């Protein structure tokens, strides 16, 4: 059974014949008493990598979600599928507001650009569909620009 000595920071494999042997574990190197429940601590680098991986997956999922909604919304506008355009726009805006309220949102400039996109779309096409189209264009442009910038940064850093 492997146990960890906190004094010399090493793991040792002990032969345990009965549960009472766990109370008398002594480190073979430094002679310190080893707790029966001592385990090697998780490495911080490994934990940081796992947390970073989780954040990367969440950001990638959010990116795919907004791009998918934007593409569906833009296609729905050109095919005159108003209901689909309204639903996709509403879902995108609801998720955007929920992210904003939770403090998770990375697109805070959307508070400025989304209304501008809606206004420009409405003034250009004169319909609510045009306003929804403007919102979808803002989401698409934001995520394409973000993707290009991140790829350039990663290429400069050398992680691509």
Account of the protein in words:
The model has no long low-confidence stretch (mean pLDDT 82). The chain folds into 2 domains: 1-41; 44-157, no CATH class. It has a two-stranded antiparallel ribbon with strand order 1-2. 16% of the residues are buried. The longest helix has 35 residues, at 44-78. The protein contains 4 helices and 2 strands, in the order ββαααα. The protein has 160 residues and is mainly alpha-helical. The chain is rod-shaped, with a radius of gyration of 27 Å.
Number of helix segments?
A: 4
The total count of strands amounts to: 2
Number of domains: 2
Provide the succession of SSEs: EEHHHH
Coarse shape: rod-shaped
Helix % is 55-70%
Low-confidence spans: pLDDT under 50, at least 5 residues? Answer: none
**Looking across the biggest beta sheet, what order are the strands in?**
1-2
Distance between the termini: 42 Å
Percent of residues in β-strands: 5-15%
Mean pLDDT: 82
Largest sheet: 2 strands, antiparallel
Secondary structure class reads mainly alpha
Radius of gyration: 27 Å
Record the SSE blueprint.
Elements: E1 2-5, E2 10-13, H1 44-78, H2 82-102, H3 110-125, H4 128-157
Antiparallel strand pairs: 1-2
Helix pairs in contact: 1-2, 1-4, 2-4, 3-4
Relevant terms:
mainly alpha, single chain, 160 residues, 2 strands, 4 helices
What is the gist of this entry?
The protein has 160 residues and is mainly alpha-helical.
């Amino acid at each position: 059974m492997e146990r960890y000595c906190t004094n010399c920071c090493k793991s040792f494999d002990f032969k345990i014949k009965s549960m009472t042997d766990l109370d008398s574990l002594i480190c073979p190197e430094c002679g310190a008493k080893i707790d029966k429940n001592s385990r090697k601590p998780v490495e911080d680098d490994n934990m940081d990598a796992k947390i970073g991986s989780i954040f990367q997956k969440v950001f990638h999922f959010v990116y795919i979600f907004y791009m998918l909604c934007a593409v569906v919304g833009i296609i729905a506008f050109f095919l005159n599928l108003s209901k689909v355009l309204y639903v996709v726009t509403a879902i995108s805006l609801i998720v955007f507001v929920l992210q904003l309220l939770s403090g998770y949102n990375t697109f805070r400039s959307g508070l400025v650009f989304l209304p501008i996109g809606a206004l420009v779309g409405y003034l250009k096409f004169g319909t609510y569909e045009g306003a929804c189209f403007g919102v979808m264009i803002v989401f698409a442009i934001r995520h394409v620009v973000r993707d290009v910038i991140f790829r350039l940064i990663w290429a400069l850093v050398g992680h691509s």
